[in-house]
């Protein structure tokens, strides 16, 4: 099992351990526009805060005298066994945070052995990232141009991606006051769309450099309905996952429309203010899915115990978002690696101390619900 590596660096060069320290270091290092874009949530940020406080609604029940010396953290997911039940959430425009952008993140994922999900609005092309050798899935938004979607899916298949994620919790870009104050565009031609401008269909149909309007056209479409999911299902035989589900009936509909997996998420509270915490919805979605397909989870994971709780509530794998992005901002590939390794080491210890020798033994009986006021 993985152990915290003794950090070799002297005093001031030591990398942070806690999420709060990573965030504080990133804030010092980044331009205000970039930091705020990562840190902020929609509106009053109630959803973002709820995502965090939801983890306190559930407490772990410790079991004693179980042999936990040799812990097994592996999980099967589709046709592969992953070393850890942890992956990198899709996050766009990572060159805003480090010059190597997604390539540094994917290298760290490859070194750690975790799944990496590439955003449609990545700064670097999906082919650049494929060269890192990371286990990789491709995430897309459905905009107005499904020919672009089909083209990106074809590129991903050619470049050895093994899963496609469609994100549907963002029919419009949310009301983000700090971004408005800073005049930050949702995506810009320089940082946001390296993956788009390398696409042959984009190059044929749109004039370059892409304008913010054409990026919006390609990546946002509030008219999208369930029929679009059925159409995109026909574009690929790869496992297709729907990200952004918190409503059980939507999970059932997604599976009926051909989805092979569900990602319970509210996008880290970046779009819908006032929503229920993603974690509080996880057991309901898991019950509706009834084991038919894998269920992944993100939104608010910051500690090993958080991973443990999400797995107890039925998630097969947990995705890490903002923590790795701050690692990237502070120290590039090495920073992302530190964040992942520490998070996994913390999870491994938590699981063992709670009395679980493997991920499969984490179940709902291992948690107590203490309610929002507990
Ligand atoms: C995101 N997220 C996201 N999701 C997605 O499907 N495609 C994308 O391009 C992005 N871009 C993005 C940018 C930034 C700056 C953030 C913080 C998030 C959402 C991401 O995949 C994940 O759902 C959240 O990050 C989970 O919340 P926490 O744990 O980071 O708070």
What does this structure look like?
There is one protein chain. With 374 residues, this protein is of the alpha/beta class. The protein has a single domain (16-369), classed as TIM Barrel (Alpha-Beta Barrel). The protein is built from 15 helices and twelve strands. The protein has helices spanning 19-29, 32-39, 46-53, 102-112, 126-130, 146-158, 177-181, 194-197, 200-205, 212-219, 226-233, 248-256, 278-289, 304-312, 322-353; strands at 58-60, 75-77, 80-82, 86-88, 115-118, 136-140, 164-167, 240-245, 261-264, 295-297, 317-320, 367-369. Helix 1 runs antiparallel to helix 15 and helix 14 (304-312) crosses helix 15. The longest helix is centred in the last third of the chain and has 32 residues, at 322-353. The two termini are 33 Å apart. Mean pLDDT is 94; it is low at 4-10. Ligand FNR binds next to helix 2. The site of ligand FNR has 22 residues, from helix 2.
Q: Which spans have pLDDT < 50 for at least 5 consecutive residues?
A: 4-10
Strand count, sense and closure of the main sheet?
Answer: 8 strands, parallel, barrel
Task: Write the CATH fold name.
Answer: TIM Barrel
CATH superfamily: Aldolase class I
Mean pLDDT: 94
Helix content: 25-40%
What gap, in angstroms, lies between the N and C termini? 33 Å
Helical segment count: 15
User: Structural class of the helix and strand makeup?
Assistant: alpha/beta
């Amino acid at each position: 099992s993985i152990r915290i590596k003794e950090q070799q660096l002297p005093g001031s060069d030591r990398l942070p351990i806690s999420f709060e320290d990573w965030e504080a270091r990133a804030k010092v290092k980044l331009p205000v526009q970039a930091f705020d874009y990562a840190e902020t949530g929609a509106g009053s940020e109630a959803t973002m805060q709820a995502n965090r406080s939801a983890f306190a609604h559930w407490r772990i029940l410790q079991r004693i005298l179980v042999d936990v010396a040799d812990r097994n953290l592996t999980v099967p997911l589709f046709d592969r066994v992953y070393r850890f039940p942890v992956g990198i959430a899709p996050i766009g425009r990572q060159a805003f945070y480090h010059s190597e952008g997604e390539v540094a993140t994917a290298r760290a994922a490859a070194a750690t052995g975790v799944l990496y999900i590439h955003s449609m609005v990545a700064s670097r092309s999906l082919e650049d990232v494929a060269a890192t050798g990371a286990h990789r899935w491709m995430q897309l938004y459905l905009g107005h141009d499904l020919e672009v979607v089909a083209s990106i899916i074809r590129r991903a298949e050619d470049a050895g991606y093994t899963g496609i994620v469609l994100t549907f919790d963002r029919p419009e870009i949310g009301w983000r006051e700090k971004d408005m104050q800073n005049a930050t565009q949702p995506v810009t031609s320089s940082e946001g769309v390296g993956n788009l401008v390398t696409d042959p269909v984009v190059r044929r149909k749109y004039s370059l450099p892409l304008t913010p309007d054409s990026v919006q056209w390609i990546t946002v479409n509030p008219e999208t309905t369930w029929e679009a999911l059925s159409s995109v299902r026909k574009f690929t035989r790869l496992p297709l996952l729907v990200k952004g589900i918190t409503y059980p009936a939507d999970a059932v509909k997604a599976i009926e429309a051909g989805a092979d997996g569900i990602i319970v998420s509210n996008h880290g509270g970046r779009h819908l203010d006032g929503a229920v915490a993603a974690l509080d919805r996880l057991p309901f979605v898991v019950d509706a899915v009834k084991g038919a397909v894998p269920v992944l989870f993100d939104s608010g994971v910051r500690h090993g115990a958080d991973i443990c709780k999400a797995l107890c509530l039925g998630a097969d794998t947990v995705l890490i978002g903002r923590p790795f992005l701050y690692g990237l901002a502070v120290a590039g590939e090495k920073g992302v690696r530190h964040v992942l390794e520490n998070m996994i080491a913390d999870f491994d210890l938590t699981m063992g101390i709670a009395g679980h020798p493997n991920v499969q033994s984490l179940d709902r009986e291992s948690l107590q619900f203490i309610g929002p006021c507990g």
